Amino acid sequence: MKKILLTTTLLMLLLPAVAATDTTAKDSTKRAWKVTGESSLGFSQVALSNWSAGGESSYSLNALVNLNATRTWGRNIWQNTLNMGYGIQQMEHQGTKKLNDQLIINTQYGYRASGKWYYTGRLNLQTQLTKGYDYNVTPKQFTSTWFAPAYLLASVGMEYINTSKTLSVLISPATAKYTIVDNGYLSSIGAFGVKVGERSRSEFGGAAIAKYKKADIIKNVNLETSLSLFSNYGDKPQNIDISWQLLAFMKINKFLSTSISTQLLYDDNVDGEVQLKEILTVGLAYTF
Q1: Which pairing describes strands 256-266 and 275-287: parallel, antiparallel, or unpaired?
Q2: At 283, which CATH number?
Q3: CA contacts within 13 A on the Cβ side of 226
Q4: Which structural domain, as residue segments, surrounds residue 153?
Q5: Best-predicted range by mean pLDDT among 48-57, 167-176, 262-271?
Q6: Which UniProt keywords apply (predicted)?
Q7: Residue-level pLDDT at 285
Q8: Residue range 259-281: average pLDDT?
Q9: Alpha carbon of 194 to those of 140, 200, 229, 266: distances in Å?
Q10: What 3-state DSSP class applies to 271?
Q11: Domain count of the fold of the chain
Q12: Residue 31 within a domain
């Protein structure tokens, strides 16, 4: 099994290196990178002094960054994305709590086979930046940190990309999934589906990944969403892992916007419960 996983990952990494160099002078103008992105920074604050109705002074800060870089030349297309979000809340008597923390990096290379179909290799990494806690228990309980967990998916397969490159669907019969728990304490309790005392879990299966991105889907609204489905061939293949993300930026004026970020996760090896996160931010924005 480990040999299969390693082979799949290496094939994905080597695809760009073995791609045919069919670039000619006539398509040299198409070789430049196309870079786009959105960012937002939201802030809220409450100040109370001798307020008879009760309450607590607080402030919160939430930042989102979404970057895309694509290069197209000849029959080749190379796409890269970075999605990062971080938010905190500071309360007068309860201290600082983390509201949001995610880092998602994706890179994929495609070589056009015929029409709108591409031979494609894809790497996707998801983790977080800082320690996470469960604040519903006293004292708060440490639950996660940088690369604990981290999820790495390496996929090879066929991908359909529409003419406008707003929609793509990757069908991968060979996907390696790695769950990494690089923390001694979390490893010792078998967190995130790894065996007690181990720091990683590897799976091999099939995946389907759909993405849609559209600028000005309606006036001043940019939308990006992706859905990833994974089935482990060797362990309960009927229990499909689901990862769905949606990010919408709504421009108010040149410097102000509203953003909505949602993420839904389901992994049978992690509690077997649907996880859902939604963040609405109104604040400063920059789009390019």
Answers
A1: antiparallel
A2: 2.40.160
A3: 12
A4: 2-18+71-85+101-287
A5: 167-176
A6: Signal
A7: 84
A8: 91
A9: 23, 6, 20, 16
A10: coil
A11: 1
A12: no
